[in-house]
Automatic annotation (TrEMBL):
Catalyzes the reversible epimerization of D-ribulose 5-phosphate to D-xylulose 5-phosphate. HAMAP family: RPE. Its EC number is 5.1.3.1. This is Ribulose-phosphate 3-epimerase. Pathway: Carbohydrate degradation. One of its GO terms (molecular function) is D-ribulose-phosphate 3-epimerase activity. CDD domains: RPE. Belongs to the ribulose-phosphate 3-epimerase family. Binds 1 divalent metal cation per subunit. Coiled coil: none annotated. Substrate binds at residues 8, 66, 142-145, 175-177, 197-198. Pfam families: Ribul_P_3_epim.
């Protein structure tokens, strides 16, 4: 099965955001990955609801919204109304993770959980049945263009084993430093969705780059 590709709009040219979204619409991308950063949970600020709404107005692909923020429960409905079809929260930011996942599903969105590079996949054991997606951070969150963390491969293998042992159906998404060199092994170890930001948007032909990833 071909991988699902989720280009991260964080790496796009925000002076031409409508044009960038139109390019993604014309590509083989499966989702548009939208990174929301608050400058507290991660050491960077990206954008918020108005930009997400603007992306959604022009997008023909589902929005995969990744909340890298403290207290995500306060904003679940807001981002759902802004167009999020997948809402991913961080394990590390949720005191009552099960309640948060139930709230996302009640809003009619798919529920994802992201885990930072230092967080063991085993911490998701008691909620894995509730998840539609697990986002494995393969860089430390907060900035695009970072180097891929090699330990991610073994982490994906452990996550795949956990999903199999629990007969869970969550998709495995990899976020950070994905390129044509590491993508084949990520897919071999069990990844389903590849998030690619700088690798796509800084290429000379983003549509062709997305197609290359899709063909792996």
């Amino acid at each position: 099965m071909a991988p699902r590709i989720a280009p991260s709009i964080l790496a796009a040219d925000f002076g031409n955001i409508q044009q960038e979204v139109a390019m993604l619409n014309a590509s083989q991308a499966d989702y548009i990955h939208v990174d929301i950063m608050d400058g507290i949970f991660v050491p960077n600020i990206s954008f918020g609801v108005p930009v997400t709404e603007a992306i959604h107005r022009h997008a023909q692909k589902p929005l995969d919204v990744h909340l890298m923020i403290q207290q995500p429960d306060l904003y679940l409905e807001t981002f759902r109304n802004a167009g999020a079809e997948i809402i991913t929260v961080h394990y590390e930011a949720c005191t009552h993770l099960h309640r948060t996942l139930q709230a996302i599903k009640k809003l009619g969105a798919k529920a994802g959980v992201a885990i930072n590079p230092h967080t063991p996949v085993e911490f998701l054991r008691d909620v894995i049945d509730e998840l539609d997606l697990v986002c494995v951070m393969s860089v430390n969150p907060g900035f695009g263009g970072q180097r891929f963390i090699e330990n991610t491969y073994s982490k994906v293998l452990r996550l795949k084993d956990l999903l199999t042992s629990k007969d869970a159906k969550a998709l495995i998404e990899i976020d950070g430093g994905v390129n044509l060199q590491n993508a084949p092994l990520l897919l071999e170890t069990g990844a389903d969705i590849l998030v690619a930001g700088s690798f796509v948007f800084t290429s000379s032909d983003p549509i062709a780059t997305i197609a290359e990833l899709k063909s792996l």
